């Protein structure tokens, strides 16, 4: 039985989301059912349908909340780190910590039936990654990323982090090597014009 916060009157929707998130985290999406969630929080099996008519509605809501949590982590990482290079490193650490500790949730966020194509899920995903995009936009404005598209840079950065997280989650890469991978990832995103020049010279050899 999943451990969730007790249900209190007026907080049914959040109680359902908390219980569903616990099931996803501990056992995966395939084990999630509205009936089990209702039993976990001690309400009738029909009660959650007041807010989530079907299982997919609940999955969408869990994904939306997951992106909200991720976005908060990324904003906190940026706000706590002065300077572009420290922000890139901090964001990489925050993302990988989230994606490896919440592997089932992240899989749901990116790959459930509607995915990021669902309106609510898509909007929450865009909001979650906006701090990362703003970081690269500032880098371009400050001359750290000259002649680079911030959106494309952000997408490559995200793809790199998600790939690393996937390798950790499936056991190919030991979690103890995350620091090394973070350092290697940060090195791919210049911390100044001189770094970009160095990369170009290396590429021309």
UniProtKB/TrEMBL annotation:
InterPro entries: Homeodomain-like_sf, HTH-type_TetR-like_transc_reg, HTH_TetR, MT1864/Rv1816-like_C, Tet_transcr_reg_TetR-rel_C_sf. The keyword Glycoprotein does not apply. Transmembrane segments: none annotated. Residues 10-70 form the HTH tetR-type domain. Pfam families: TetR_C_33, TetR_N. The keyword Transcription regulation applies. PROSITE patterns: HTH_TETR_2. One of its GO terms (molecular function) is transcription cis-regulatory region binding. Keywords: DNA-binding, Transcription, Transcription regulation. Residues 33-52 bind DNA. This is TetR/AcrR family transcriptional regulator. It comes from Microbacterium allomyrinae.
